[in-house]
Amino acid sequence: MTIEYSRAAGTVRKYLGAMGPSWIAGAIAAGPATMASLITAGAIFDYQLLWVVVLSAFAGALAQYLAMRLGLLTERGIVGVVEEHLGETWAWILVADVVIAAGVAQLVIMNTVASVSATITGIDARLWGVAWGAILVLGLAGRGYRFVELFAKLLVTAVVLAFVASLFVVSIDLGQAGQGLTPTLPGGGALVAAGILGGAVHITLITMHSYTMRARGWTERDYDLATADVLASMLIAFGIYSVAIFLVSASTLTDPDLTTVGAAQALGPLVGPAAKWLFLLGLGGAAVSTLGGNTIVPPFLVADKLGWGTTVEDTRYRMLLAAFAVLSVPGAFIGGEVIGQLVLVLALGTVGTPFAIAIVLYLLNAESVGASNSTLANLGGLALLAVSGGLAANFVREQIATGFDLLSGLVFAFALVLAAATLVLLGQYVREEVTLA
To answer: Does the predicted model carry a pTM greater than 0.70?
Structure first.
């Protein structure tokens, strides 16, 4: 018995030390946009959207598992697999989808990092934007993937522990929390629900996974380790992070028009007069981890599409990474209240996510993968596609209902193109299956 326990403990320690790729996805997921969505949901709807929060952890883990499976079984980046089995046009659509979603997110996240830095130090946010841009260039283009991975592990762990600790000093209404596990969508809740789910099931997280695993040199032999990596980072760490933030917010916040400082002050009873600074440090830490992780995603896909290497050993990739880091600096000049911007960015990312899920499911059931996808995995993927598609559709409808402006018009056009592409892809798969039958 002692020998078996020692072996099990040794395996756990080995896995914990070897984990990494999915923790970058977790660092992006556990970022300021997710935090803003969770805080907004708790402040406006109390416990009503707890079911969405719990669902997001399971959905995020499932999405990363499917992406992990595709990456390990093909041992290639997703863009290369798409181009080989679907064609160049589909590869470019996927690249464009990711660049748009990640690019918009990068600008708003940089605005968050710069704004929080300015609030803490009193130095102009625009100067902080330039400084953080330089840090990204030196850290990522200089040291590469492993720098991001280590940083992600440390920050995600610290943020999760901080919010779990806060649960012990908050009075949670367990009855209302239990009722919040019943799926209902209150009026006006589609945007926030899309933001919560979008934090866990996002096109950047799905598409980046094959590249981060390649950077680690993982192959099909590492299947068990990769699965444990996904479960530990997305289901456990991200799940605890999300539920803890939501329960704290639903128990203490009541202001539907939140600002970052307003949320911090409302949480004052938890930690006393230091609430503002602790909240801002937490928001800033989450933003920094997401900023670093998000920066590497578009260069991965663009470099793969152009046939370049996807590590800093390839000078072209390093320059592409540095360029995307520099292009994030203008985000610090946006200004405005970041919580509303962050929720909108995640919801916008949700619009692009169903297409990425459809791509992964298509490839996992095609000849591109040696081992056929299980019925359970397919059913889970289809459920994921239906939920993300439904939330994306609700979000688009809410945007249209408020009247077309430049933003809602662009969101509608983006959604229309990707919805058409997803339907065409599904139709192509059905035709292929009928032909084979």
So the answer is: yes
